[in-house]
């Protein structure tokens, strides 16, 4: 690998993650989704449960390249830059939660969406907090210190849940993070997809998710510093395998769970991400394999923007009502186009694939115009 060459395998890894995010978030019907494309109901880990932690890992990986310029800046300037980026990503997440700012009332009229029920947290908000905390730890404590603090986060989170979570600390109702979010965010500002106010991107569970960013940084730094070293890739594969085993073993007492982002889940997903990135480094950087990589590069060059646009497109669908049944455009497309032609489950899957391709076209156009949105 050339020292000055763009880290193409990272773009591919990041692009693959964004494409999968879009696919799992836009099925034609949530009642007709193949099992691997659904999150685990509670404990456990499906392929879909790997997508978000992979994105955080990619954020850390990219930081290992971007943070080099911090060495020439004052600490004040670095903190300002990190906090500004954190606040901007968080604000974009809030914007996406509120968008399109209006909704239908019970009589079918447009009314303004109330800020009193605006969900505060979300995917982008967690990305923002994990980036901000991870970047500050790495800059001020250096990678070794950041790793130590990450281990404290992982062990401390386990201890907090165990000692403060009651008789069933890893359940939905017993999770202490629920009480933290209720106290700080408030019931009206939390996610309700679990049948009660519960925040899967909660404040307390952000601590172990920082680990995905820090480990991603360490892997990226290791690859850069040892790109020509003999056995580099083997060591990376061994590290990923060890983390997977540790995650599984820890999971016997601290179950692997995305919704409360357990520490075992962090180790397990980091291990799998490390193995996948190792495969991509071998194929793309070492063997020079380029066949099919451009599809994922397109997503990887504008990841946050394309992810945000995927949410914007879906939310706009729900503003348009069609036909006598007054269906929203999202349901109408599935019920009148994809389901009749392809059937229930295949139609639902192809609906998601259609949106992956639609967003890819946007990314392709941006790449051809050399438009890269940096936050």
UniProtKB/TrEMBL annotation:
Is Transmembrane helix one of the keywords? yes
Query: Membrane-crossing residues?
Result: 12-30, 50-70, 82-100, 120-138, 145-164, 202-220, 232-253, 265-284, 304-322, 342-365
Keywords assigned by UniProt, alphabetized: Membrane, Transmembrane, Transmembrane helix
Pfam families in the record: HGSNAT_cat
Ranges for domain Heparan-alpha-glucosaminide N-acetyltransferase catalytic come to: 6-226
Does the record's keyword annotation contain Transmembrane helix? yes
The protein here is known as: DUF1624 domain-containing protein
């Amino acid at each position: 690998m050339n020292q000055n060459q763009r880290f193409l395998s990272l773009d591919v890894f990041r692009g693959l993650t964004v494409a999968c995010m879009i696919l799992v978030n836009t099925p034609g019907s949530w009642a007709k989704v193949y099992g691997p494309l659904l999150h685990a109901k509670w404990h456990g880990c499906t392929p879909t449960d790997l997508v978000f932690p992979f994105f955080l890992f990619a954020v850390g990986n990219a930081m290992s390249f971007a943070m080099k310029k911090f060495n020439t800046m004052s600490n004040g300037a670095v903190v300002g830059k990190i906090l500004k980026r954190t606040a901007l990503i968080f604000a974009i997440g809030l914007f996406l939660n509120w968008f399109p700012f209006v909704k239908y009332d019970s009589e079918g009229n447009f009314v303004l969406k109330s800020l009193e029920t605006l969900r505060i947290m979300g995917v982008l908000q967690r990305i923002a907090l994990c980036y901000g905390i991870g970047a500050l730890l790495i800059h001020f404590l250096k990678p070794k210190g950041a790793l130590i603090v990450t281990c404290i986060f992982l062990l401390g989170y386990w201890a907090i849940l165990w000692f403060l979570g009651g008789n069933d600390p890893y359940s939905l109702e017993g999770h202490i993070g629920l009480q933290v979010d209720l106290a700080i965010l408030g019931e009206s500002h939390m996610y309700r997809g679990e049948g009660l106010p519960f925040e899967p991107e909660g404040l307390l569970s952000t601590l172990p998710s920082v680990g995905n960013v820090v480990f991603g940084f360490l892997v990226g730094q290791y690859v850069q510093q040892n790109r020509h070293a003999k056995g580099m890739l083997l060591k990376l594969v061994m590290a990923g395998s060890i983390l997977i085993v540790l995650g599984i073993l820890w999971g016997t007492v601290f179950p692997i769970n995305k919704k409360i982002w357990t520490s075992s889940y962090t180790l397990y997903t980091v291990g799998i991400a490390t193995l996948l990135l190792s495969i991509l480094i071998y194929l793309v950087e070492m063997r020079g394999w380029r066949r099919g990589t451009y599809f994922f590069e397109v997503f990887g060059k504008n990841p946050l923007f394309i992810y945000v646009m995927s949410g914007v497109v879906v939310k706009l669908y729900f503003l348009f009502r069609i036909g006598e049944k007054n269906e929203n455009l999202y349901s109408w497309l599935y019920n009148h186009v994809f389901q009749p032609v392809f059937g229930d489950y295949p139609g639902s899957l192809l609906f998601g694939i259609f949106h992956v391709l639609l967003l890819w076209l946007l990314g392709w156009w941006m790449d051809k115009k050399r438009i890269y949105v940096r936050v």
